[in-house]
Every structure is written in C-alpha cells, then in structure tokens.
Amino acid sequence: MVYYDVQNLGDLIKAFIEQHKGPDYLYEMKAINAWPEVVGPFIASHTIDLSIKNKTLFVRVDSDALRNELNYSKSLLVRDLNAKAGKEVVDEIVLN
Question: Are 66 and 74 in contact (CB under 8 A)?
C-alpha cells in the first residue's frame, strides 16, 4: 500500500518562495504592491521603480521636486507600507 503525504498547495508554494526568496519576500511584495494606495495615483504615476533590499525601500521617481517632497514623508511612508504589509519589512527609504 502506498501512502501519500498530502499538503496544501498554498503552503507548498509559500515554503518554496520562502526557501528561494527569503522569509519576508511575500511581505515585501505586499509593501511594494501597496505603494500606489499609500502615496496616491499622482505619485504612483511618477514612480519608475521600487525594490526592497535589507529592509531598505529603493524608490525611483521621474521628478526632482517630487523626490524632495517625498523626503519629508519618509517616516509616514515607512509606517503605512509596513502596516499594509502586515510586518515590518521597511526600515528606511532611499529616493533616486
């Protein structure tokens, strides 16, 4: 008689991602995906790229004025992105 180890597909996918991308990868993606909701459609439309490495969110925007404006809101953005992610995955923001 053959016995199979039955597991939930969602749990297997999550385990695979955590093993290959790191344990916080899914939370980081939640934070990145929440960017448009947190900053609003205008800033989101001027955002070129987002990435997280070592709890630092790297943000590229297409406007120097917008970059300066975002510098004043970094702590609020960190708080709101972490809240949306459900875990503290961003400690600081670097604007390029």
Answer: no
**pLDDT tens across the length of the chain (96 residues):** 777 777 888 888 878 877 877 778 899 999 999 999 999 999 999 999 999 999 999 999 999 999 999 999 999 999 999 999 999 999 999 999
Our count of domains for the chain comes to: 1
Integer-rounded Cα radius of gyration of the chain: 17
| Amino acid (one-letter) located at 68 | N
At 92, list the tokens.
Answer: 């600081």
Please list, residue by residue across 78-91, b when 16 or more beta carbons sit within 10 angstroms of its beta carbon and e when fewer do. Answer: bebbbebbeeebbe
Residue with tokens 């199979």: 4
pTM, full prediction: 0.81
Name the residue range of residue 72's domain.
23-95
Q: What is the DSSP letter of 23?
A: T
Residue 39's SS3 state is helix
How many angstroms separate the CA atoms of 90 and 81, rounded?
A: 8
